[in-house]
Structure formats: structure tokens, C-alpha cells
Amino acid sequence: MLASACVGILEANAQEHSTAPVEVAEPADYRMNDYRAPVPKSLKGARVVDTEAAAALREKEGAIFIDVYPQAPKPAGLPANAIWRTPKHTSIEGAVWLPNVGYGTLAAAPEAYFKSNLERLTGGDTAKTVIFFCLRDCWMSWNAAKRAMSWGYTSVVWFPDGTDGWQELGMTVADAKPEPGF
Predict the structure, then answer these.
(1) Per-residue model confidence as pLDDT tens digits over 68-127
(2) Residue 20 has pLDDT above 90, yes or no
(3) Are strands 96-97 and 47-48 parallel, antiparallel or unpaired?
(4) In this structure, how many other beta carbons lie within 10 angstroms of the beta carbon of residue 154?
(5) Which residues form the domain of 60?
(6) Per-residue exposure over 65-86, b if at least 16 CB sit within 10 Å of its own CB, e if not
(7) Does residue 25 belong to any structural domain of this protein?
(8) What is the pLDDT of residue 19?
(9) Residue 142: which CATH number?
(10) Total number of domains constituting the chain
(11) Are strands 173-175 and 96-97 parallel, antiparallel or unpaired?
(12) Phi, psi values for residue 65, rounded to 5°
């Protein structure tokens, strides 16, 4: 009897600490907090791709890769003479980094930055294939892809494994700099 109770406790503990992927429902609206958390497997209206498919879209369609990883802000309260160096960011080689455009709500300036860069990068062609990514389990890319579709972009691709998946397959990454205007 004691043995079966111990087995039951161990099984419950194993389930509690399982490494199995968490199933996340796709929300109706933008994710507003906890941006580094498990993401859904889908984004209504967008194609969702793995690393191999993302690489193939780049090769076959000349897809535009847009990294929406946030840029760390200068910490509040730093002395006026303190030197602030923005932390280094590594991205998929050839990707365009548009930081901070994946938040659930965008102020006017980041929204204008995002919209104008999308228009510039696609040459105004809303059917041009655009791939949004960040890191694995990052809602920023999900939000950015959803927002692009709300603006009429019709060939939106969400790459949820992002830079993590790219590096795991030995694909090329490089230091990234934000697009001007940020």
C-alpha cells in the first residue's frame, strides 16, 4: 500500500515537472504582457513555419525577415555622466531589426516606425512575403505578424522558433542594428 502511494506521488510530481510542450490557445486579440511565455501553434490568417520552411521561403520567394526582438531601454535614474551601451543583439543574417514593434499596444511613434518600415521594405506591395520572428516562446513576433495583417498585408509568415531555431540548425546569424528611425 505504501509502495503504491509513493508511486502515485512520483507520477504526479513527474507530470507537474514535465518538459512536454504547453498547449496555448490562440487569443482573439494581442498579447499584452508576459511576452516571453509559451506561444500558440497558430496565428489565424498567417502561415506558421519551422526553420527549414523559413529558409526555403527566403531562397524561393525572397521573403523579408523582420526581427522584432525588443531593445533594452536606458535604465531610469542613471547619472547624467553614465555611459549607456545598448546590449548586443544577434539576429538572422540579412534580417531587418525593428525593435519594440511587437508589444500588444503601440504608441504613435513605434506604430509609425513599424508601418513606414514595412511599406519601405515591401515597396508598398502588401502581398510581398514577410516573415516575423523573435526568439522561441516570444509573443512579440506573434503580435507583430497579427498587426501587419490588420494593415492589409496578405503574405504574412510567423516563424515562432526564430533566432533560436535558426542557430540550432547551424544557420548564419550576425550582429544586428535597429533600422534607423527607432
Answers:
(1) 999 988 899 989 899 989 899 999 999 999 999 999 999 999 999 999 999 999 999 999
(2) no
(3) unpaired
(4) 14
(5) 35-73+87-175
(6) bbbbbbeeeeeeeeeeeeeeee
(7) no
(8) 59
(9) 3.40.250.10
(10) 1
(11) unpaired
(12) -95, 125
